[in-house]
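Protein modeling request. Please complete all fields; requests missing the sequence field cannot be processed.
Requester role: graduate student
Desired output: 3D structure, token encoding
Chains: 1
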Amino acid sequence: MNPICRLDDLAEARAQRFVIDGRPIAVVRLGDTVHAIDDTCSHAKVSLADGEVWPEACTLECPKHGSAFSLTTGTPDTLPATMPVAVHSVSVVDGNVHIEVTS
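Delivered output (103 residues):
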């Protein structure tokens, strides 16, 4: 597993899009914790990384229709999305962010 960036390169409570092994991933830093979920909304097929992060709810909102996806489970908290997105394992080692993409 190779690092995708430095922890310090991620802005607080903002999503950033990375492509890992050909798969778009939305990465969000909340404090010292980094979350990674599939970047494509399960409802509208748009980039979640363009949406707003809600730190208190630990969600990322789809910019098209407003479905908010949990950064910990991938489950949408609001309609119109009903299908979850995949959540990926993240580790921070020596200040480097590593993501293991799940199938």
